[in-house]
Specification:
672 residues, mainly alpha, Glycosyltransferase, two-stranded antiparallel sheet
């Protein structure tokens, strides 16, 4: 390994990443096509067409989608969430059900997925396909997979007490006549009628972002199988219209809840099945589904992660991001900060979502990513303005509303007018960062950690605090404090005087909250030194977990503040060292296939570890081999799109490789 080879590899991946920018100068990325999304989209269109008594509606979309499912069925008869995923019971049940509905293959004497005689089919009339025999074969093979996997009991066991996905999947199957409605747990959709501030008090049986599913699926279950309890039945009957108004209010103007095809499809098929085909929610949902289909007939799991991949790219490239992109991206990010209470999660102003599209929801992973990117993009502005050259404090500067003033194009001139616009831009950046920090601090849970969307909503895994998100928040907010102060806080828990801030009292209070976040990270470190993330996993790892991602993210944050010698950091680094594969790369743990994403993350985290020189060299060689072979951009399905639903993002390997190799070049140039 030579310095020249590292430099060449970095320049190659940097060029590829920069070439992925769109005409506006930022990144959009591309999410994997999804069998799960495709199955639910077809089902929503079929059910709506059936209720409209128009069997020819969206015929091409339905046929093309079924053809895509047929072509991407795994050899074992099942489907995974992506074309790179292993088969699982959830996605296979969805695909099997929609193929049954479309082909009309189910007979009156067949049995449901639990082995009982099934109810009358409630799906669309049989659909013409280019090769019906092939479709029937795919359906039969899928049935065999579902039988082997355990059917409904296996699905319910997979999600446990979290009804967020088991109930929608079973509803989808019930609409195809494969599951009896009484097998589906009723959802208390009437709770959606209580004020949003009480949602966390009533302990909803679904996660915070699944409110649309609670309403729509709860209603269709009540429609086909109302409760025997007369009081509850009356209560739910009276809650139908008010909860539908809530659903219509929180639906984005483009129809896509969370920009997610599965969630939007579940809502659409449920309301259509109870006859509400002309309801505005259904019409907008169908429009979103139609507008989201891809040329090959598939649907992605979500429209895009444009904000997320852009902030990741900016933070990976640092000052190697070309000048012509910096101001446009800065403006684009500033314009995305939420300036009003979000109608969906009732979140306060100040956060950022994963996308610039209307279905986004502010969260505690994209918000610190945006803060870090804005800090990076605004550094040169402060150099040009000596009186404001310090870092923004992000403390005690609560902004009531994020401004939407235009950023002046081009390079700032020396005129007084240009200086005024320059100063206005810096003030806008400061206000955005301060509001973002306040938003994050308001989200912090009692355990000191940070959840994704809503503070204290519930006990379900995807509403709890998580180490990866908490580390990201610490990295962003800690960047606004002196590195020495952060290091002392991490190493000893000591809160130093915040005299360098305009509001020292607020600075000390923020440091106290950051110390609570550090306490959470220390309490969640496992005995072997690793941390587990929330939004990333590995289908080859034990329990689908990805300690490589979680550990690398926490260790990277600790290294940023010079705390690489603490026992906890050393323990995390030790776990990474001991879990390197024999080929030099990293997967999620011993025996799991190496990936670009996991290898880049692990190597970057170990660059500050003097005990990991050999590990780093082997890891860099693994990455550079793939750069030179042209396979560095091969993505792995390590992303969790909510619980146990997988995705891959085409830009992840390039972004993570750029970040790792850029830091490696810096270390080599510094002689370390």
């Amino acid at each position: 390994m030579t310095a020249e080879r590292i430099q060449r590899a970095y320049e190659a991946v940097r060029t590829r990443l920069l070439d992925e920018r769109n005409a506006a100068g930022h990144w959009r990325g591309e999410l994997a096509s999804s069998a799960l999304s495709t199955a639910t989209a077809i089902s929503a269109l079929c059910e709506t067409a059936r209720q409209r008594r128009d069997p020819t509606a969206w015929q091409d979309l339905i046929e093309n989608g079924c053809g895509w499912l047929d072509r991407h069925q795994n050899d074992d008869g099942g489907w995974g969430d992506t074309v790179k995923s292993l088969s699982n019971i959830s996605t296979t049940m969805l695909c099997h059900a929609v193929l049954v509905a479309v082909s009309g293959q189910r007979s009156a004497t067949s049995h449901d997925l639990a082995g009982h005689p099934g109810p009358p089919i409630s799906a669309a009339a049989p659909t013409k396909t280019s090769d019906p025999s092939t479709l029937n074969s795919a359906t039969d093979r899928a049935q065999e997979y579902v039988d082997r996997a355990g059917g409904v009991p296996a699905l319910v066991a997979r999600y446990g007490k979290d009804k967020t996905f088991s109930v929608p999947i079973l509803t989808h199957c019930a609409l195809a006549g494969l599951v009896d409605w009484r097998q589906i747990t009723p959802l208390p959709f009437e709770l959606a009628c209580v004020p949003a501030r009480f949602y966390k008090t009533v302990r909803l049986p679904v996660v915070s972002y699944a409110l649309p599913a609670l309403i729509a699926i709860g209603q269709v279950r009540h429609h086909f199988a109302p409760t025997w309890n007369p009081v509850t039945r009356v209560l739910r009957n009276r809650a139908i219209e008010p909860s539908l108004k809530v659903l219509a209010r929180i639906q984005p103007p483009n129809g896509g809840f969370l920009e997610a095809t599965p969630l939007t499809s579940f809502v659409t098929m449920s309301l259509a099945a109870k006859g509400l085909v002309d309801h505005p929610v259904v019409r907008r949902g169908v429009d979103f589904i139609i507008n989201s289909v891809r040329p090959d007939g598939s649907w992605p799991i979500d429209t895009n992660l444009a904000t997320w991949v852009t902030t990741l790219s900016v933070n990976a490239l640092g000052d190697d991001l070309p000048e012509e992109s910096r101001l446009p991206i800065l403006k684009w990010l500033l314009d995305q900060q939420y300036s009003e209470v979000h109608p969906y999660t009732n979140a306060d102003p100040g956060g950022w979502a994963w996308t610039d599209l209307p279905g986004g929801v502010p969260d505690a992973d994209d918000t610190p990513g945006a803060i870090l990117a804005i800090l990076e993009l605004s550094r040169e502005l402060r150099v040009e303005s000596p009186e404001r050259s310090r870092q923004p404090s992000g403390v005690g500067r609560q902004a009531s509303k994020v401004g939407q003033s235009e950023i002046p194009p081009g390079v700032m001139t020396g005129t007084s007018n240009a200086n005024a616009r320059h100063q206005e831009l810096i003030e806008r950046v400061d206000a955005a960062i301060a509001t973002g920090v306040d938003w994050l601090l308001g989200l912090q849970n009692r355990d000191g950690g940070f959840p994704t969307f809503c503070r204290g909503w519930g006990t379900l895994p995807f509403d709890r605090s998580s180490p990866d998100i908490t580390a990201h928040c610490l990295r962003a907010m800690g960047s606004l404090h002196h590195p020495a102060a952060m290091r002392r806080m991490i190493e000893s828990g000591e809160i130093v005087d915040g005299a360098e801030h305009p509001d020292p009292q607020s600075a000390r209070q923020q440091m106290r909250q950051l110390r609570l976040a550090m306490d959470f990270l220390m309490s969640t470190q496992r005995r072997d030194g690793s941390w587990l993330p929330l939004w990333f996993g590995n289908q080859h790892g034990a329990h689908d977990e990805n300690p490589t991602y979680g550990t690398a993210k926490v260790v990277h944050m600790l290294n940023e503040f010079g705390a690489n010698e603490t026992p906890r950091t050393q323990s995390g680094m030790g776990w990474l060292r001991s879990n390197q594969n024999s080929d030099g790369g990293w997967g999620a743990g011993p025996g799991t296939p190496s990936s670009v994403e996991e290898t880049a993350l692990a190597v970057e985290a170990l660059l500050d570890d003097p005990h990991a020189v050999d590990h780093v060299v082997r890891g860099l060689n693994w990455l550079m081999d793939r750069v030179e072979a042209g396979t560095i951009a091969e993505p792995a399905p390590i992303g969790f799109y909510f619980a146990k639903l997988w995705y891959f993002e085409r830009l992840y390997p390039l972004i993570f490789a750029v970040s790792c190799l850029r830091r490696a070049v810096q270390r080599v140039n510094a002689g370390s």
